[in-house]
């Protein structure tokens, strides 16, 4: 059964795992998002960054009189002043994610010079990177003057793309480290170039964003820094920008915002604000609400932090992912195939909790397992196991229970179900022991009893006898009038089926002695039992529409004949020599006779099983000697020998006295020591 369960679980795992390997990419992506959420709930937000600072175009900038109602093309003098002060503070590198694509130079010559001079200074110090957007075949780029100032028009090395391509669901989870420009040349991305300039070379094609382990950059309002630069507060710039990567970009409510894998774990806006230099932060500058999307400049900052700290997420390769999903599917399927429903659900919950705990724990080490895809594997494989169990496995088990629950004790039915030995239509040839019992003088006892009370009395008798048979591992096949046909050794194989049958027979007799049962309240029930061991056909006999588990064969005929023989010998239990041989010395027997039963050519040697108390009252050597005289045909001597035994109260010996005297008076020339049933 275990091997079959493994095969079935493997089939389920192949189907479920194959489906999720093929179509589970969206769940993989969503897993990263929810792992960010769980990490934030358990461990809180990351700390403030010591490596990155942001010069932000924010709501305060647009309200500032120096920027208010002016297009960005006219901000360049103020931006130049800020960039100069930042460069004086000696940052590692400055990234400009503000693309100014127009200039006022045509109407105000020299208007952009402060900005252009600051850019040239940064380029000369190898500390400025201009951003542009790679948009199909025509990029969105800064003005030619700005590109010339950073010498981008010469070798392009100070100009890098700021594109943030999303996944198919519109969420940015991976940050590209390189792009192909319009000429087909590989160009480092904006964040990759800044990390390179900061001393951490970026390798590979992309880094999976890990917002949970990316320290949060402090945000400085451009309006505040303009006032700070104008006031000559050099110490403020040194304190906040020295040795850092400085990013110029927007943090507005409606411009350049991106949905990312950290969208479920964002903080209320305005929490990363640096202490102002000159212009205090106003409540209306930031909404104070956590939003799913975030400014693009913060995505660049997180990517750079991941590159600097080596905290970018790792995801399993295709082979690893497939192995994980198939393993989870196998475990879930096995639980529901091999265990009872309650235990299976408990194991399933343990698997789901363990997988979730592993996914969350490994996320802290920068591994993003396909958490939700794995849960989907458990959810799909579990019901698949249940469905297979209900439609295939448990159906067979229910058939077994329905077939035998009324005839076998619960422990035996449970064992039968565990071994899953469902008898097939047509049966099988098996060696068993058959018990046939009858109520002595039943016709006489029942003839004056009304049907209702008679059935009640029989039911009480059958109930007690059935309990005894089942207690000894037997199976009551059927009730035949007042008779009982029971089987030992089927449907479950039992090594000692003959001994079980003998023990059950003795227990049935002793039960009626200890607690008598009556027919009609007066006629005491006494029974006769015949036992025979041999091969018989056992199984579901009948048609597919209607069948019964029963037994057929010569062994049944012999057992029924032996029950009838007991009447002639005046003893309650008669067993065949086959039963005697199988029981061995586990029980004491007395040999009765050698008889050819009706319907059978081969004679059968008969024995009487005895309790220890009954055996103590019998002179076995003397009885055996008398029986040998009987066999040799010396009936006169046999009569004398049996007579001595009869005087001590041996009823069977007394019967032999009468038979021996009769045979002595009418000698038989063809005597072989074999009695033909019905001849006595």
TrEMBL record:
It holds the Pfam family CHASE2. Keywords: Membrane, Transmembrane, Transmembrane helix. SUPFAM superfamilies: Nucleotide cyclase. It comes from Dongia mobilis. InterPro entries: A/G_cyclase, Adenylyl/Guanylyl_Cyclase_3/4, CHASE2, Nucleotide_cyclase. This is Adenylate cyclase. GO terms for biological process: cAMP biosynthetic process; intracellular signal transduction. Residues 433-563 form the Guanylate cyclase domain. The chain crosses the membrane at residues 322-339, 346-369, 375-392. GO terms for molecular function: adenylate cyclase activity. The keyword Transmembrane helix applies. It comes from the Bacteria.
